[in-house]
Amino acid sequence: MAVRVPQNSIGHWVIRALWVAAVAAFVLYIPTRTETGTIGDMTVAIEFAIAAISLNLVLGYTGIISLGHSAFFGVGMFTTAVMVDRYGWSQGWTFFIAFAVAFIVGCLVSLPALRLTGIYLALVTLALAVLFPTLMKWNKLEWLTGGSRGITGIGYEDVPTWPLLGELKGRDGRAVFLYWLGIVLLVVTYAIARGIVKSRAGRSLVAIRDNEIAASVMGVHTARTKTLIFGISAGMCALAGSLSAIRLDAANPDVPTVTLIGSITFLLMMILGGTATLWGPIIGALLFVVIDTRTREAGASGTGVINKVFNDWMNFTTSPAGFILAVIILVMIFVAPFGVVGLLRRLASKLVVIVPRPAGTPAAAGDVLAPAAAAEVVEGAGADAVVVSGDAND
Amino acid sequence: MDKFFEALFIGLSNGAIYALVALALVVVFRGTGALNFAQGEMATLSAFIVWLLNNAGVPLVLALLLGMVFGFVIGALTEITIVRPLERKSPLAVFVATIALFLGINAFTTGVWGAPPDEAIDSLFPNEPDSYLSLLGTTWRYTSIGALAVTLVVSFLLFLLFQKTRFGLAMRGVASNAESARLVGIPTGRVLAGSWGIAGALGALAATLVAGVNLQVTPTMMFTIFVYATAAATLGGLDSPGGAVVGGLAIGVIEAQAATWSTEWVGQDMKLGVALLCILVVLLVRPAGLFGTSKVVRV
Fold it and tell me: Which of A106, A207, B69, B186 has the maximum number of C-beta atoms within 10 A of its C-beta?
């Protein structure tokens, strides 16, 4: 029998404090106790997490299928590269302009999106994803983008000194600094996403996803909402691209994350973590990077099951992480369409149930017993709505 | 005028390949109402099977037929094991599943065959330096003529299948109304698995033709072709097989002409951009495509 904890009671605050402490401990553990390689991998995970969060806003919450987020990632990457290399900006300031440029591009792309639905929208965004690298290599744009060679030399030579971090030097120092820069960006993106989702705007997104006509009848300005959310999502994804450009010290149209494969990876890691949940994209990105590094280590070590299956039997010459991710997703759509976070939430609800305060009661009446059914209504009530029952109105 | 005919012919032979893949997409879409994003990758996998068989000493034509059987089997299996159970849940689940298949097959082919040496394969048609036809002031290579001829023959065979056989009648029945089709005793399951299978076989054929033109099989060879094929299917109408053929040839010719007449702006690089512009214009002006039926939704 699950323990019932009233919402906002002392017990609930203890649970929340434990969560925050656990996350903070993990965030602090990485740069202080692990090697430079691991810190770098975690920075990659942060990039993926930001991209997946941005995709989650449009696909998870609003139900707009986008395969074009690799292009927005690329917009961020190239904006940073151009501003640093051509105009001599400092790296940190390019995040703002990257967000702005991608926001405008996203709003423009979403204009046809207002007239199209479902599969047709997927086609247009697919086209965008495929077009982006080609556009960057186009000879008419070579003066700006550097053609197929791209732009190099945009990372930090000496990282700036931040109050809490102290003096950071050399390769290790750069890795630690980029990690913290990534954490700041991730916190900002998470906060924006959470702010949108938990507000009136977030409820109109879910309304559009579940039944667009009903939403517009209820007074949601669907065209404006869809355009704005697409723009914001594109801007967020560009932040990840900017970070990636600084980490890689280069912007190149052949980096996998700015090609269609990037879009697909963002999408699948979001599904893996849990669609329409705030933590899902972060967990999904982390899991993917863990799978990726583990399989690479297994391949290098020459032992273990992964190595036996992929290197000895199948003769893989690249990381099998994409293949493993695809297989996991194919299994998961059947057994756990709500993703890892949804699965954990279901397990946790067997232990602890947060009982929400009935609507209309004052905050003081914390531990009023509510019907158990209402207990399910925690953050992201539509966690599995997208995959399981996305089209109930068909 | 020479330039015009040259571009026209290059366009037609490239367009023939797009048309084949577009046909595969349309056959699936008519039956299931889903777009198979993994169609191109399934085709690549089948082409690798053809290469494996051919390398093991099987004659190329026989290897192609076996490859098409393989394509048919993976197509049908996908429908039976993945699409059918998921369709009841939601269309988005089917979309995610085809995307996952795309990544999985792509990662598999890249992992196994991505590194050098190249997987060299012969063309299905004579491909010597002198195997071409001089016509209208340009050279028309047999490989290109072959691709066009194969597409036209296959389209005609599919037309016969759709219009003249019991299976085709059943397919049209399922396409127009799956529920009613089931009620009048059409084995919808078998029809849908068959449609996915036919699409898989078409993909295998197209990929082998592409490999024959490039003289090698590569894991990414169907990437852009898949995008062109979606452009073709959109142009012709996602539920119209005739439209897919016309759309494929049209996209091929349009991009070739654009590349020829505007070498500076379009050239070989931005051909893709032209095709994508086509998709966008068609979707905004006439979302159902040239020959497709527009869908009326009851609110």
Answer: A106
Q: Does B265 touch chain A (CB under 8 A)?
A: yes
Yes or no: say if A390 and B93 are a contact pair by the CB < 8 Å rule. yes
Q: What pLDDT is attached to residue B199?
A: 95
SS3 B57: coil
CB contact under 8 A, B287 and A325: no
Nearest CA in chain A to B268: A138
**Amino acid identity of A84?**
V
Inspect the interface and report whether the beta carbons of B276 and A112 lie closer than 8 Å: no
Q: Are A267 and A125 in contact (CB under 8 A)?
A: no
Q: Which two tokens stand for residue B19?
A: 């048309």
Candidate from B101, B227, B269 with C-beta closest to A126: B227
Q: List all residues 6 or more positions away from B189 whose beta carbon is below 8 Å from its beta carbon.
A: B80, B84
Measured between CB atoms, does A124 come within 8 Å of chain B?
yes
Span B202-211, average pLDDT:
93
Average pLDDT of chain A, as a whole number: 84
Q: Which among A257, A243, A245 has a CA at the least distance from the CA of A133?
A: A257
List, in order, residues 6 or more apart from A224 with CB less than 8 Å away.
Answer: none
| Residues B276, A330: C-beta atoms closer than 8 Å | no
The upper half-sphere exposure of residue B70, i.e. CA atoms within 13 Å in the direction of its Cβ, equals 22
SS3 at position B282: helix
Under-70 pLDDT residues of chain A:
1, 113, 302-303, 307-308, 311-313, 315, 361-394
User: Based on C-alpha coordinates, what's the Rg of chain A?
Assistant: 22
B34 vs B87: CA distance, rounded Å: 9
Tell me the residue length of chain A.
394
- For the cut 70, the answer to whether the pLDDT of residue B11 exceeds it is yes
The answer to whether residues B246 and B197 touch, using CB atoms and an 8 Å cutoff, is: no
Listed by number, the residues of chain B in 98-127 with a beta carbon closer than 8 Å to a beta carbon of chain A are 99-108, 110-112, 114-115
The three state secondary structure string of chain A is CCEEEECCCHHHHHHHHHHHHHHHHHHHHHHHHCCHHHHHHHHHHHHHHHHHHHHHHHHHHCCCCCCCHHHHHHHHHHHHHHHHHHHCCCHHHHHHHHHHHHHHHHHHHHHHHCCCCHHHHHHHHHHHHHHHHHHHHCHHHHHHHCHHHCEECCCCCCCCCECCCECCCHHHHHHHHHHHHHHHHHHHHHHHHHHHHCCHHHHHHHHHHHCHHHHHHCCCCHHHHHHHHHHHHHHHHHHHHHHHHHHHCEECCCCHHHCHHHHHHHHHHHHHHCCCCCCHHHHHHHHHHHHHHHHHHHHHHCCHHHHHHHHHHCCCCCCCHHHHHHHHHHHHHHHCCCHHHHHHHHHHHHHEEEECCCCCCCCCCCCCCCCHHHHHCCCCCCCCHHHHHCCCCC
What contacts B34, CB < 8 A, 6 or more positions away? A119, B28, B83, B87, B91, B94, B95, B98
Q: Which residues contact B274 (CB under 8 A, 6 or more apart)?
A: B254, B255, B258, B259, B266
**Which has more confidence, B262 or A23?**
A23
> CB-CB: which of A268, A319, A394 is closest to B99?
A268
Per-residue pLDDT tens for A162-213?
A: 777 777 777 788 889 999 999 999 999 999 999 999 999 899 999 998 888 8
Give pLDDT, residue B179: 84
Task: ipTM value, please give it.
Answer: 0.88
